[in-house]
Write a structure and sequence with these properties.
About 45% of the residues lie in helices and about 10% in strands. It is mainly alpha-helical. The protein has two domains: about 1-135, Rossmann fold; about 145-275, Orthogonal Bundle (Non-ribosomal Peptide Synthetase Peptidyl Carrier Protein, Chain A). The strands form three sheets. Strands 1-2-7 form a three-stranded parallel beta sheet, with helices on both faces. It has a two-stranded parallel sheet with strand order 3-4. It has a two-stranded antiparallel ribbon with strand order 5-6. The radius of gyration is 23 Å and the shape is elongated.
Length: about 280
């Protein structure tokens, strides 16, 4: 609906309102980081972003505001559980007054000072404005349960923003997945390689894997039995991809077909495939 409706408005405005003063899409940050299980919704928002850029490139006013959850308004205000879910995925709440300010800037063109002579020039809002997506520092500060989107290369730079000097992205004290998984991989892989044996490497990996599984499944990792079968925790295909991506990011090992394996055995297989700890 967003795709067809947006394009219809675009074509109709060119025919009926060629001098349209402003054209604003209320898109979503989901088009940037992706909502799990909502590929069609993500694509629709990305289309609005692309259409706004296309219009802008052809001299037509257009701004696509990629909204995160707006606090005190809309679905977030009506559904507290939804806000908890979005926050767990790494979204940052947007104050309603801040949204109003961005919307005003998208519509109007306030003057700005132009350097030495105090002359003014129109403020031009960029064709795409992203709100509600956290930096690596904010993800760490908010102790986000499952920032799945930060584990992709697309956000490798954002993962390093707002971190304290010397602080590695995603390398938290308890060994969680964290933003991007880069910091974790940089500390865990050398430790796995330095393990005294394959069994020792598997034992070292086990608590990290259990915690990551808890984050992906949205459950307390302390209640996960290391000898339970992975499928017993109910991961669907999307969650399985997150688990496999975490394994690859944290250990460098590509693995598949682990659904029916006990968690402890999975760690042993990862240690074997990665050649960690040398021969037993």
């Amino acid at each position: 609906m967003k795709t067809v409706g947006s394009y219809n408005l675009h074509t109709a405005s060119q025919q009926a309102c060629p001098d349209l003063k402003f054209f604003v899409f209320l898109s979503s940050a989901a088009g940037i980081i992706g909502n799990l299980g909502q590929a069609n919704y993500n694509a629709g928002n990305s289309f609005q972003d692309a259409l706004a850029r296309h219009r802008s490139a052809h001299g037509l006013h257009s701004v696509s505001i990629d909204l995160g959850p707006v606090l005190g308004a809309g679905m977030v205000a009506e559904d507290e559980a939804l806000w908890d879910q979005l926050r767990a995925g790494g979204f940052i709440g947007v104050r309603l007054e801040d949204f109003h300010t961005v919307l005003e800037r998208a519509i109007t063109k306030p003057p700005t000072t132009n350097g030495t002579h105090g002359a003014t020039k129109p403020f031009v809002c960029p064709p795409q404005v992203v709100m509600g997506v956290g930096t690596g520092g904010l993800v760490r500060q908010n102790k986000t349960a499952n920032p799945f989107w930060t584990r992709t290369a697309l956000f490798s730079h954002l993962n390093r923003v707002d971190l304290r000097p010397g602080e590695a992205a995603g390398n938290d004290e308890e060994g969680g997945g964290g933003a991007g998984g880069g910091g974790l991989g940089s500390s865990l892989k050398p430790a796995l390689k330095a393990a005294s044996s394959r069994a020792a490497a598997a034992d070292l990996l086990l608590p990290y894997f259990v915690r990551a599984l808890g984050e992906v499944m949205g459950k307390n990792h302390t209640g996960i039995d290391p000898d339970s079968v992975l499928d017993d925790h109910g991961p669907d295909s999307l969650r399985m991809k997150e688990i496999l991506d975490w394994i690859s990011s944290a250990t460098g090992v590509k693995i598949s077909g682990i659904n029916q394996m006990p968690i402890r055995s999975i760690c042993a297989q990862i240690a074997d495939l990665g050649g960690f700890g040398g021969e037993d």
